[in-house]
Write a structure and sequence with these properties.
This protein is mainly alpha-helical. It has one domain. The chain is built from five helices and two strands, in the order ααααββα. It has a two-stranded antiparallel ribbon with strand order 1-2. α2 packs antiparallel against α5. It is flat and about 35 Å long. The model has no long low-confidence stretch (mean pLDDT about 90).
Length: about 80
């Protein structure tokens, strides 16, 4: 069963995500693309008739790892 919001925000994985958000606050998208030429391809997925492009969001490999860790801590694997 998914965690309730109040439980979710008390998890250490949530705090890690908050730290990543603060670190990326004010970072320009053009800078993320310049620093990572493979960004558009790596953060684009297709499946089940859907195309999802995460590259135009402030996501990094560290953020993705933190999101997956949070999902795992909530038994959402």
């Amino acid at each position: 069963m998914p965690a309730h919001p109040e439980v979710l925000t008390s998890k250490p994985e949530w705090q890690t995500l908050k730290e990543h958000r603060q670190r990326l606050d004010g970072v320009l998208m053009k800078d993320l693309f310049n620093q990572d030429p493979g960004r558009a391809k790596r953060y684009f997925i297709e499946g089940a008739g859907l195309s999802l492009d995460f590259s135009k969001n402030r996501i990094t490999d560290d953020v993705l790892d933190a999101l997956l860790a949070l999902a795992s801590s909530c038994n959402l694997e």
